[in-house]
Write a structure and sequence with these properties.
Distance between the termini: 68 Å
CATH architecture: Alpha Horseshoe
Number of strands: 0
Shape: elongated
Strand content: under 5%
Number of domains: 1
Mean pLDDT: 78
Helix content: over 70%
Largest sheet: none
Structural class: mainly alpha
CATH topology: Serine Threonine Protein Phosphatase 5, Tetratricopeptide repeat
Order of helices and strands: HHHHHHHH
Radius of gyration: 20 Å
């Protein structure tokens, strides 16, 4: 009798533990199916997940990759850098080289949006080097984004040096 109760209790705990992120996983699955054809819908779905930084690290890394891709395709704001930092650190340890490069690219863009240009250049360079060690799938994207960040930094330095034009964002 005790053995049966213990087994039932363990089964209940196992199945409820596996469903902890079931709702978030389903939303991420839906967004992944939509991202190529309807990136705006995928972006909205992913943004509706409450506190994504509280998900397990693997799911957070997947969410971050999709949220960055959706933001990139729709020209929307990138997820918060602190969330992308967690995902990037997980990707560096467990993810494919391509996922590492993409997550690094999205993190660098988030830094750029938050005017943390030195951090952006550091991550762009790191992602660039990681991708060069493999194959240049995302190389044009990383180079373009790095160039845009560098041009933005130069532009802001020129504005500070006293040229008389009105300041505009390059982005």
């Amino acid at each position: 009798m005790k053995y049966t109760q213990t087994v039932i209790l363990l089964l209940i705990l196992t199945f409820t533990g596996c469903n902890k992120y079931k709702e978030q996983r389903q939303i991420i699955d839906r967004a992944e199916n939509l991202i190529e054809s309807h990136p705006d819908s995928a972006y909205i779905l992913l943004r509706n997940i409450q506190a994504p930084d509280l998900m397990n690290k693997r799911l957070l890394a997947r969410w971050s990759l999709l949220a960055g891709k959706a933001a990139d395709k729709t020209n929307e704001k990138m997820p918060a850098p602190f969330i992308l930092e967690k995902a990037y650190n997980w990707q560096k340890r467990h993810g494919s080289h391509e996922n590492q490069a993409w997550t690094g690219l999205y993190l660098a863009r988030a830094y750029t949006e938050n005017k943390k240009y030195n951090d952006a250049i550091k991550i762009f360079t790191e992602a660039f080097i990681r991708q060069l060690r493999q194959k240049p799938i995302t190389l044009p994207d990383i180079c373009t984004a790095t160039s845009v960040t560098y041009i933005n930094i130069l532009y802001r330095q020129t504005k500070r040096s006293g040229s008389g034009r009105k300041q505009q964002n390059v982005f």
